[in-house]
Amino acid sequence: MSGTLLEVDDLRVNFPTRTGLVQAVRGVSFSLGRERLGIVGESGSGKSQTGRAIMGLTPPQAEVTAKKLAFDGIDLLAAPARQRRALRGKRIAMILQDPKYSLDPVMSIGRQIVETLRTHEKVGKAEARDRALAMLEAVQIRDPARVFDLHPHEVSGGMGQRAMIAMMLIAGPEMMIADEPTSALDVTVQLDVLGILDKLVSERGMGLIFISHDLRLVSSFCDRVIVMYAGKVVEQLKASELRDAQHPYTRGLLNCMPRIGFERHPLPVLDRKPEWAA
Amino acid sequence: MNAALSIDGLEVVFDRFRALKGVSLEVKSGDSYGLVGESGSGKSTLLKAIAGLAPAASGTIAVNGKTLGTRRDKAFYREVQMVFQDPYGSLHPRQTVDRLLQEPLAIHGFADGEKRIQRALDEVGLGTGFRFRYAHQLSGGQRQRVAIARALILEPSILLLDEPTSALDASVQAEVLNLLEEIRRRRKLTFLMVSHDLAIVTHMCERLMVMQNGEAVENLTASQLIGHRVTKDYTRNLLRASEGFVRG
Fold this sequence. Notes:
The structure holds 2 protein chains of 2 kinds.
Chain A: E1 6-17, E2 20-32, E3 36-40, H1 47-55, E4 63-65, E5 68-71, E6 74-75, H2 81-87, E7 92-95, H3 99-102, H4 109-120, H5 125-138, H6 144-148, H7 157-169, E8 175-179, H8 187-204, E9 207-212, H9 215-221, E10 224-229, E11 232-238, H10 248-255, H11 274-277
Parallel strand pairs in A: 3-9, 3-10, 7-8, 8-9
Antiparallel strand pairs in A: 1-2, 1-4, 1-5, 5-6, 10-11
Chain B: E1 3-14, E2 17-28, E3 32-37, H1 43-51, E4 56-63, E5 66-67, H2 74-79, E6 80-83, H3 97-107, H4 113-123, H5 140-152, E7 158-162, H6 170-187, E8 190-195, H7 198-204, E9 207-212, E10 215-221, H8 222-226, H9 233-241
Parallel strand pairs in B: 3-8, 3-9, 6-7, 7-8
Antiparallel strand pairs in B: 1-2, 1-4, 4-5, 9-10
């Protein structure tokens, strides 16, 4: 397939600790084209570490190995730090969960966006400002000139997350990793932010990896879903075929959430089988 | 049946910010009542005001027919207990589960502590094996069970639940919700539960109040909400949002 952006084959992330090796990711394989891929799992399933390993943000004490980890033909594990730095932010971008912690608290929102742009492209100050303002407008911030000069603590969560999306998109990345981009937001704001993300991703033809614990949200947003459990992929399926999920973990995860209009007392709970993690 | 909890015109003001603007509410004894709203709607402040953790500027709160003063007495805390959102933050990191559970017993002068601790742990499905562990040795779901055990150990009649499962994984959430329902049925407790998740509130509560900007938007029964028989646009928006993302 010519449209393949990212190839991951047998990715492993291990953390050596005093009590032995912790295997956070244990042989994950998938490929990503210009599509939306969801990675779903509960805490500790290795979904975030998978995203971070692709981005090159794994902590230094951890060991990352893979038979293949290639972005657009570039072997990410063999690439020198300099090349990876150039890729990060320019061609691969990442949106994090909580804008309260992931934006620089002592820098105005506008300056942070301009900084990202000028790190990756040779543009003048005035042009950078104009492009940042245009980007803020693209993420549906009503008064970009005002927000440009605000600091992160002066804006709401939804606004902060929009600013972060603007910052990530300004260099025109081809692939974006969104790690729980809406979990810290209110439900109605969540939909606004997803709508913006949806529009921009499809307009620009980006590849998106959407990491979340919310199986239902992911399946309504993505084309394809990977379900992870204990560091492994237990099931890969089209989002539209979620109802026909085979693996008991996927089915259990779908089932155990309360739903409006479906009365079940008590709620079905997951009966975790040791062989799922094997 | 008489009201376990009745609140009339409650106002909470922080400096000049009015967090609650005259909220009234009545919960019947044995009922489970839900408070829904977005962040900043005042739903948690309402719970805190009942527990005495937020200052009431005006209005009255009555528990089991008794109007509360500004200071809560010991008897109040035997009747009303609270479970907080974040089990990582609400348990003392340097106390064992045993020590955590002894504290309320010591304050209220219970003699049969040993028996009560064992019973409380059994009731939340932990067993005595967890008794001498620290909070960091427990998973999120286990910690929330300890927090529930701590609330139950004084045998209160009213539980205030502030987003008790929002920090937990979906599968663990189901277990904790089931536990709460079972305890309510067995002990005939009254619940006042805050959540941002309409699905959880309709699952757990018979009646609910939708809040926005410190005011009550609408009082509903769970079946009205399920049947989409709501009158306010704000509630309709929340309902639509809870159905997930629809590609435009």
